[in-house]
From TrEMBL:
Alphabetical list of Pfam families matching this protein: Aa_trans
Source species: Danaus plexippus plexippus
Compartment(s) of residence: Membrane
Matches recorded under InterPro entries: AA_transpt_TM
Name the record gives this protein: Amino acid transporter
Amino acid sequence: MEKDKQEYNPYENRTVEKPSSDIRATANIIKASLGSGLLAGPLAFSNSGWGVGLIGTFAIGIICGHCVHILVKTSYGCCKLERKPLLGYAETCKSAFANGPKFIRPYASVASIFAELAMLCTYVGVCCIYTVLISDSIKQLIDRYMPSLNLSVEYYCLIILIPLCLLCQVRYLKWLAIFSILANLFLFLTYLICFYYIFRSPLSFEGKTAAGDPSRFPAFLSTVIFAMEGIGVVMPVENAMKKPQHFLGCPSVLVVAMTAIVFFYSTLGFFGYLRYGDVLRGSITLNLPIEDWPAICAKIFIAMSIFFTYPLQFYVVYDIFKKYTDVYIKDDYKKITDIASRTLGVCFCVGIGIALPLLEQIINIVGSCFYSILGLIIPGIVETAFRWGDLGTLKWVMWKNILIILFGLTALVSGCTVTIMDIIQILRKKNE
């Protein structure tokens, strides 16, 4: 029986309705991470200083990439033990606990529920951020060319509600990959335009610090983690691949995607900080001059990029909802229920964005709290549990994962503390 379990190959037994190619999978991973997080890179560097920012970005990129690696590898091992072709994020957590040491086995269901809750909170937060960022970009353009309207960001959130509802009706990752490729194209064009403005005049290190105020390092950490992490999309993307064995390894989908993410983030963060210094806003596009046509294009492109990325992030939210409700819905009503629930889900996310339209602070909360749990703490715990009987020489796997978990907890506590203090300060200024 044990021999059969070892010989079971999940990839050979996996049937995917509409499988994705390696290129589409790479596009989905890159787009799941890059977006509003990329454009917040210069602001993150202003919190850390350019030296700490560069070293920190590369270090966090390696840690985040490693956490994705161990999650996918653990999921594959769980699939072999369970003799199942594929497992989702929460199912992997449950299986790792169920097959781990005896003292944690009773908590397998709790681990699954906790992972689902963390995933849901994370991606609802991401959808809120995307709503505010699109609305901010549109508002800047309208305020410049139609000043008589003078609408607040909240109204623009309502205006984009219907287009977002329509776009989120797309059900398959195969078709969402097309939107991801478009979004990546728009994002790359925005990236190039930002560099046009950055290098339009000579850069100077004058007034720019290599190491910033240590009290602002948690804000840097939160923003970078938010930009690097797309772990909630990893399992759906890997599970939907035509050749899932190409996801890990070198070269692989993960290596190519993480290399691109670290490169784009570090270059824009570094040079953007040298250009704009400490006057940066939540997205670098908001610092560009509104009267120049390249800047106008950048604001349009980033709004389009985030708009086309929205359904990929919402896919995670809806996938969790569908998992728990599908069994209670009759086949005759599944189609109409699917449309209605997707629409209500988008309305809920947009509603939260309207209630708290503080772009920089929402990014930091999602990065420090939710992504630290989802992308750092849980993968470290899950691999340790699954490999409890084989932790390597001197139990190096356990010690390595303890360091990852401590890093995640540090980012969580410090990032949330700094961000909450920032929000309180902003609200006090508004009330004065």
